[in-house]
Each structure stands twice: as C-alpha cells, then as structure tokens.
C-alpha cells in the first residue's frame, strides 16, 4: 500500500511498526462550537482509512484528542455565562453525535487536555531543563533554533518565516518564531505551574497524548492541511527534542472543503453544520460526496454536487436492496457463492485504487461498475450463488466506504409490490412501473 507522506513529500510503501497493527492519531476538535461540514472531511476520510485497514485484517488503534481548554472556549463560556467545562461538554457531545450520525467508527480513546494537565506541565518543565525552552515573566517559549529540521513538514524555510514573523514581533521572545508552551493568564480557568498560573499552549497537547497513549512513535498522524503549519511543525519540533523522532512514520493531510468555491468560515456567514445538513439529506449521500474527491485535493460543496451524490446513492441503495430480494431464498438454502469474473475484477480495481494513496475517487468508479454489473445480472437471470457473490462484494465495498446499509426485512406486501414493479418493467408498462417505483421509494425499499 502506498501512502503520500507529507514529511518526505512522496508516496511510500506502508510498513507498520508492529505487525498487523496500525497506530493512528488525528488532531481532534476544539470544542467551542458546532462542527461544520468542513470539519467532517478529515473525520470521514480517516474513518475510511480505519475501515480499510480493518478490512485488510489490521488491528487499528485510533486515538484523537479533545481540546477542552482554549481561548475560544473561555470566550464562549463568558458569552454564554456558563463554565468552560459546560461549553466543552456541550460541543463535544454534538461532535460525537455527528460522528455517530455519519456512521464513523468510534475512536479507541479521546484524551482531554484537562485530564492530562500534569503530564503537559512535566513535559514543558523537561523541555526547559534541557534547554529547549525558556521561561519569561510567567510564559514559556520553545526555542526553535534548537531544531535543525524545523520547516521540514510544511516545506517552509526558517529565514522566510522569520521575516514574516518579525512584523508581529513579541519582544519577550528570543526569536520571533519561538512558540508558546505555557501562557500566563488570569482570564478564565487556569492551572498552577512552576511558572505561575496559566494554561498550556495547543501544540504540546498532541505530543504528550501520543506519548502517553502509544509509548513511542506511531504509524500515521493525520489532520487537515491547515494544521501542517504551525501546529504539526511544532509538534514535531518538541518530539525531536524530547523523544528523538518525528512522532509518526506517515504524516497525512486532508484538503479543504469550500462552499460554492469560497472558504467556509463563520466570519463569511456561510457555515453549514453537520446535523443541519444530514437532517435534510441522507448521511450516506453526504459521505459519497465527501469521498468522491481524492483526500489531498480540495473539495467544493455545491447544491448541484450534493444532488448528484444523492442520485448516485439512490442507485447503490436500490441495487443493494434488489440483491437482498433475490437472495431471500438463497440465504435460507445457504447457497454457495459462485465467483463472477467481472465483479471480481472490479473488486480488484477497487482495492488497487485504495492501495494507491487511498484514491477513493477511482474506488467509487469501481463501485458504480459493480452496480452496473448487478443490473446486467438481473436482466440475464443468473444463479443465486452469483447473486450472493455480488452481494458479498457490494457489502465489502460499502463497509469500507462506511455506508450504513442495514439489511431491510421486507414485509410480504413490500415483496409483492416489488414483484409487481419488476413485472411492469418487463411488460414495458411505464406508467404502472413509475407509480410502483414511487410507492417502493416511499417505503424505502428501493
Ligand atoms: Zn495535534
């Protein structure tokens, strides 16, 4: 399997640290507002990665942090006149609910900043003791001059960054690029530390949590492209100093989601919350849309694109349900699968696409190919074993893509309706066929 590694800027063969295991970490939410569909892109993509490794037989240890202390949370708490903990709880619940509605597999662990404060203070303290960080008037900064590789992940040159940073220079810093590890403050919730009351900086969180949860280097560290710099660069800098490694063997970054070719942001007022959207459209169609573009490319959300995904999703669902109808008897008889060469070839193309840096766009083309092939099989009336083979293939594909296709038990009335619909289509009685299709769709059979 090839994975594009941002750190080395090339596709590399995936080799797990431990056989049959994948240690994967993604930067989680700062829980101060409702997650929007742009935030859902990394969640959905890494869910596919998780599922594909599961399909291949790997055991995936999947961890994501929760930033439950942050200036934005404190400001929101002041605004809503509640505690920071209440804000964090409310928006974390919303995040988890959205993940569930999107049929994302749960994380194995979700460590919170507030529950790892001692470890973070110890870590910062150790950086100061070793000379990688320094304290000034209650703040602690990381000394980026200590890291020769600084800029490697994001492809930035320190000299250029320094010019930019000097404009907004903080006189307390030795170097304008030094970043904050501990911030002195008396606003909102604070913790005691060797440098006085304050709060830790964001960049230390993930380094500390990864070390705590995985006890060493991990396979995959992921997040959105916008986290490459400075967040991930700063994570790596701290880890190189303290642990002598760059945290992960593969750094994966997911491109942005735009809305009608514009950046989606609160200030532009064009934010779509996840729950609001999937109350209106099938979560599966949303998933299909989100995975229809390669993860490293930007994706553009438009009404037209989502309508198209809904139509395509309808075709997949109908085919799936038709196969189930064909197999009602076959399953009872425990029919043996009979390989269908055309479908086997499409499954091969499907996995080949995913093995090539998770090319979901090409994988979806293979999935559509199977739908087409099944429709051909229906017209040709093949054996039940062949239907079963097609169904198993479709089930594997839809599992990997995370579509929620629970087998629907049909009532005898629904089955009769379906048979009448097939008969009407065969007899080319289109008026009747259309009427029956509408009724079947209303019953969610097709
Ligand atoms: Zn992080």
Q: Which properties best describe this structure?
A:
single chain; 446 residues; alpha/beta; Rossmann fold; Four Helix Bundle (Hemerythrin (Met), subunit A); 2 domains; 4-stranded parallel beta sheet; 4-stranded antiparallel beta sheet; elongated; binds zinc ion
Descriptive account of the structure:
The chain has helices spanning 40-56, 71-80, 84-101, 117-129, 158-167, 202-214, 228-243, 274-280, 283-290, 303-332, 341-355, 360-380, 384-401, 412-426, 430-442; strands spanning 2-5, 10-13, 21-26, 59-64, 133-136, 139-142, 179-184, 198-200, 218-224, 248-254, 257-259, 262-263, 299-301. The protein is of the alpha/beta class and 446 residues long. It has two domains: 2-280, 3-Layer(aba) Sandwich (Rossmann fold), CATH 3.40.50; 299-407, Four Helix Bundle (Hemerythrin (Met), subunit A). A four-stranded parallel beta sheet has the order 4-3-9-10, with helices on both faces. A four-stranded antiparallel beta sheet has the order 5-6-7-8. A three-stranded mixed beta sheet has the order 12-11-13. Helix 9 packs across helix 10 (303-332). The longest helix has 30 residues, at 303-332. The chain is elongated, with a radius of gyration of 26 Å. The model has no long low-confidence stretch (mean pLDDT 92). Zinc ion binds next to helix 7. Zinc ion (ZN) is lined by residues 27, 206, 231, 235.
């Amino acid at each position: 399997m090839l994975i594009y590694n941002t750190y080395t800027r090339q596709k590399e063969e995936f080799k797990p640290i431990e056989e049959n295991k994948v240690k994967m970490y993604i930067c989680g939410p700062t829980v101060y507002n409702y997650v929007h569909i742009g935030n859902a892109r990394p969640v959905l993509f890494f869910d596919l990665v998780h599922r594909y490794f599961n399909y291949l037989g790997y055991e995936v240890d999947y961890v994501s942090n929760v930033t439950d202390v942050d200036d934005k949370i404190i400001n929101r708490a002041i605004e809503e006149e509640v505690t920071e903990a209440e804000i964090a709880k409310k928006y974390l619940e919303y995040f988890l609910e959205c993940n569930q509605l999107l049929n994302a597999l749960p994380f194995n662990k979700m460590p919170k900043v507030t529950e790892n404060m001692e470890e973070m203070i110890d870590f910062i303290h150790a950086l100061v003791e070793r000379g990688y960080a320094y304290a000034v008037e209650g703040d602690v900064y990381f000394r980026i001059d200590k890291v020769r590789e600084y800029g490697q992940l994001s492809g930035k040159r320190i000299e250029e960054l320094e010019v930019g940073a000097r404009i907004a220079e903080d006189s307390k810093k030795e170097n304008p690029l030094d970043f904050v590890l501990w911030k002195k403050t008396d606003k909102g919730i604070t913790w005691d530390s060797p440098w006085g009351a304050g709060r830790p900086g964001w960049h230390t969180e993930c380094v500390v949590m990864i070390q705590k949860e995985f006890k060493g280097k991990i396979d995959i560290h992921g997040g959105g492209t916008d986290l490459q710099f400075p967040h991930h660069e700063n994570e790596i800098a701290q880890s190189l100093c303290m642990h002598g490694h760059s945290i992960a063997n593969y750094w994966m970054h997911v491109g942005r989601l735009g809305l009608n070719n514009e950046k989606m942001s609160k200030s532009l007022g064009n934010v779509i919350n996840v729950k609001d959207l999937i109350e209106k459209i099938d979560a599966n169609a949303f998933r299909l849309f989100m995975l229809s573009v390669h993860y490293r490319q930007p994706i553009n959300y438009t009404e037209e694109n989502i309508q198209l995904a809904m139509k395509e999703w309808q075709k997949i669902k109908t085919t799936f349900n038709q196969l189930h109808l064909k197999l009602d008897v076959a399953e009872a008889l425990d029919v043996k699968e009979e390989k269908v060469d055309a479908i086997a070839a499409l499954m091969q193309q499907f996995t080949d696409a995913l093995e090539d840096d998770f090319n979901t766009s090409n994988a979806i083309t293979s999935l559509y190919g199977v739908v087409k092939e099944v429709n051909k099989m229906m017209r040709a009336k093949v054996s039940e074993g062949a239907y079963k083979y097609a169904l198993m293939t479709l089930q594997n594909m839809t599992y990997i893509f995370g579509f929620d296709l629970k087998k629907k038990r049909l009532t005898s009335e629904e089955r009769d309706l379906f048979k009448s619909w097939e008969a009407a289509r065969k007899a080319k009685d289109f008026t009747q066929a259309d009427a029956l299709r509408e009724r079947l769709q209303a019953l969610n059979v097709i």
